[in-house]
Design brief:
There is one protein chain. The protein is mainly beta and 115 residues long. 3% of the residues lie in helices and 43% in strands. It has a nine-stranded antiparallel beta sheet. The longest helix is centred in the N-terminal third of the chain and has 4 residues. It binds zinc ion (ZN). Zinc ion binds next to loops.
Amino acid sequence: MAKSIPHISEEYYCTHCNDYKDFLDVNTNWKCPICGNYVQIRIVIGNTIDQSCFRIPVSELSSNDIVLLHRNTDFNEILGIRNSGDKVFLNIKGYGSVKMNKDDTILKLNGGWYH
Ligand SMILES: [Zn+2]
């Protein structure tokens, strides 16, 4: 399973600083270099309204979080999480069990993009 790869259509916005951020300022940990909060990431897929996501390590996921694995599919709910060493097994609705590294990143749905 591929981890989350940045897409050319993405934009980055910090709601705490009320400011857009450059890719090169956020691409190490997807946090704002000024305030340290995760930046909202604009996700454009298909004909749906643009969504806001955070790109977080899978180790920070919780059950019931909504994630995007592939841009040609839809958002899916995390049904369960099982840790095993440096791996994480995510039970994702519509996918079943997905094995990832703990420090792999994944797009977690935040809500609509309103910036
Ligand atoms: Zn900020």
